[in-house]
Amino acid sequence: MAANPADLSAALVLTPVPAADWLVVLPPAWCLLVGAVLLMLRKSLHLQALIAIPALAVLVVIDALLLAHVAANGPVTMVMGRWLPPFGIAFTADLTGVLFALAGAVVAFAGSVHALADIDASGRRYGFYPFLLLLMAGVSGAFLTGDIFNLYVWFEVLLISSFGLITLGSEPRQIDGAIKYAFLNLVATTLFLVTTGYLYGIFGTLNMADIAVKAAAGRAELPLMTLATLYFLAFGMKAAAFPVNFWLPASYHTPRVVVSALFAGLLTKVGIYALLRTLVMLFPVEREELSFLIAIVGVATMLLGALGALGQSDIRRLLGYVVISGIGVILAGLSLGSPGGIGGAIFYALHSMVVMTALYMAAGLAGRLAGSFDLNRLGGLYSRSALFSALSLVLFFAASGLPPFSGFWPKVMVAKAAIDIGAWWLTASVFLAGFLTTIALGRVFALAYWRAEVRGLPAQSIPASALLPLAGLTALTVVFGLFPDALLSLVQHAEQSLANPDAYIGSVFPGGK
Amino acid sequence: MEFPFVLLIGLFFAAAVYLMLSKFLVRVLLGVVLLGNGVNLLLFTNGRILREIPPIIPEGHDVPATLTANALPQALILTAIVISFSFFAFLLVLVYRAYQDLGTDNGNEMRLAEPEDDPLPPTGY
């Protein structure tokens, strides 16, 4: 052995990793660890929430620290098993990934508190909190990984946890929704795997920074359009883009309300993140060529979402269409590219994570107060709780994109980017979709909140554990609507580092490539 | 050796798509399984199919003297097989449960979550 000492520094990272860089792998590792502990303690129902809620608060802190680290020092990379990239699996956190991860953690934390009032003992016995933690492991891993096959694995982690969550309770309605959700999502991730197989055949590497370098070098002779189009289809299906979005309105209203809230905040946004990562960072030239198609899909998605919302009488189903409408705006931003469009897409996705989660929570509370989710029967919510009604109205305005709430700024960014390149029809559809959403949600307020109560219902009060997370998320949308400067500059930096990934590549290959 | 595998993968995909277009869940399920296996074969073929050539680098060389099969896609399919198998197990249970609870395996008749006679929202107060 010692006769021929190999030069290990060619293959391994030999210097110890700085303590701050461990933050990159901590979010998924922490969630997996706590999830495993919760699984072991699944019989102790009273301990589940006691462990899960502080653990998710810690996750928020970890992601916030990581955001501060990345904002100060640029993208951070850590490799598994010390193997140098592209051989080892790399975790690379850049601003886009960290912003998504932080928003996801905040949403999950709010959901875990809200679940105290919404998930009963049987839900806890069937493992709501372990599933939630494992879902967060998948979501955080997907946002932070720098390896495309690893991204596939995290997709599957979050998918199988979401199957557990969507069937929690096992009512026939849920089984019906879960069938459609499970089959179509599985086909989408299989499509992702097909594309990744092609990608490995073309590049011989799975590291995203390596792919970005090799794609830029060999663009002329490589069949990259195939990859970009297939990724657009696979991730578009995950993100619920028209015409592969019909799994969402078929399933999102069936599980427990807090599960719907978490799904609306987290799952489609993972698809959006993967779209941004592949199309903007890896295949920017191909995205440019696809931009007209992406714009058409975006317009169809946002209009279908808004029209669908107008036609629903169940407020949970209505919100499912509002989620889809938001995806359309994000796709419009994606089609416009940098500058402005990508930033608008990232900002809108972050806004949508917070607001859609809060809206589903509000819908759940409305159903609890008025005893129904049906617009034909709802009424009198304003007389029952003025505070809850005020919070709901703020969320309705935010989701419609009205100022001064957080939905306004990303729409302005997308609309301005569209006008700058003369795509007036894209701007017009963003405004039309916003207008139709305002009507749909305004009608919910008029009917469910303002209309006089139809019949006497037993007086119900809202538990603080259900109202606090709703108020917290609403406060976020108000704060980022009134003071968008900090988030705007972060988002613009994220956009630049995504569109020009030199810093990302430099963090994976410090010695140059 | 790759060419027959390419044909086989094509057959797998064609059969999978055909089965998934059915409205009966058991056929869709079989289609999903075939699709997963087709993808596994695709990954496998990506890494070259060569028999009995161990990937051993002779002394004094930096790379193998002859072409060998790439081991990484084989590691990838190992992951993919485990994942697609566990999903198959879950879907099998889900479909069986759906058959028990909903009394049908016909997708067209599963309208519990989206009832056909769902009322429209009211047009006035």
Automatic annotation (TrEMBL), chain A:
<feature type="transmembrane region" description="Helical">
    <location>
        <begin position="381"/>
        <end position="402"/>
    </location>
</feature>
<feature type="transmembrane region" description="Helical">
    <location>
        <begin position="22"/>
        <end position="41"/>
    </location>
</feature>
<dbReference type="Pfam" id="PF00361">
    <property type="entry name" value="Proton_antipo_M"/>
</dbReference>
<feature type="transmembrane region" description="Helical">
    <location>
        <begin position="462"/>
        <end position="483"/>
    </location>
</feature>
<feature type="transmembrane region" description="Helical">
    <location>
        <begin position="50"/>
        <end position="71"/>
    </location>
</feature>
<feature type="transmembrane region" description="Helical">
    <location>
        <begin position="318"/>
        <end position="339"/>
    </location>
</feature>
<feature type="transmembrane region" description="Helical">
    <location>
        <begin position="345"/>
        <end position="369"/>
    </location>
</feature>
<feature type="transmembrane region" description="Helical">
    <location>
        <begin position="260"/>
        <end position="284"/>
    </location>
</feature>
<feature type="transmembrane region" description="Helical">
    <location>
        <begin position="223"/>
        <end position="248"/>
    </location>
</feature>
<dbReference type="InterPro" id="IPR003918">
    <property type="entry name" value="NADH_UbQ_OxRdtase"/>
</dbReference>
<keyword id="KW-0812">Transmembrane</keyword>
<feature type="transmembrane region" description="Helical">
    <location>
        <begin position="290"/>
        <end position="311"/>
    </location>
</feature>
<keyword id="KW-1003">Cell membrane</keyword>
<comment type="similarity">
    <text>Belongs to the CPA3 antiporters (TC 2.A.63) subunit D family.</text>
</comment>
<dbReference type="InterPro" id="IPR050586">
    <property type="entry name" value="CPA3_Na-H_Antiporter_D"/>
</dbReference>
<keyword id="KW-0472">Membrane</keyword>
<protein>
    <submittedName>
        <fullName>Na+/H+ antiporter subunit D</fullName>
    </submittedName>
</protein>
<feature type="transmembrane region" description="Helical">
    <location>
        <begin position="181"/>
        <end position="203"/>
    </location>
</feature>
<feature type="transmembrane region" description="Helical">
    <location>
        <begin position="128"/>
        <end position="145"/>
    </location>
</feature>
<dbReference type="InterPro" id="IPR001750">
    <property type="entry name" value="ND/Mrp_TM"/>
</dbReference>
<feature type="transmembrane region" description="Helical">
    <location>
        <begin position="422"/>
        <end position="450"/>
    </location>
</feature>
<feature type="domain" description="NADH:quinone oxidoreductase/Mrp antiporter transmembrane">
    <location>
        <begin position="147"/>
        <end position="436"/>
    </location>
</feature>
UniProtKB/TrEMBL annotation, chain B:
<keyword id="KW-1133">Transmembrane helix</keyword>
<dbReference type="Pfam" id="PF00420">
    <property type="entry name" value="Oxidored_q2"/>
</dbReference>
<keyword id="KW-1003">Cell membrane</keyword>
<feature type="transmembrane region" description="Helical">
    <location>
        <begin position="75"/>
        <end position="96"/>
    </location>
</feature>
<feature type="transmembrane region" description="Helical">
    <location>
        <begin position="28"/>
        <end position="45"/>
    </location>
</feature>
<dbReference type="InterPro" id="IPR039428">
    <property type="entry name" value="NUOK/Mnh_C1-like"/>
</dbReference>
<protein>
    <submittedName>
        <fullName>Na+/H+ antiporter subunit C</fullName>
    </submittedName>
</protein>
<dbReference type="InterPro" id="IPR050601">
    <property type="entry name" value="CPA3_antiporter_subunitC"/>
</dbReference>
<keyword id="KW-0812">Transmembrane</keyword>
<feature type="transmembrane region" description="Helical">
    <location>
        <begin position="6"/>
        <end position="21"/>
    </location>
</feature>
<comment type="similarity">
    <text>Belongs to the CPA3 antiporters (TC 2.A.63) subunit C family.</text>
</comment>
<keyword id="KW-0472">Membrane</keyword>
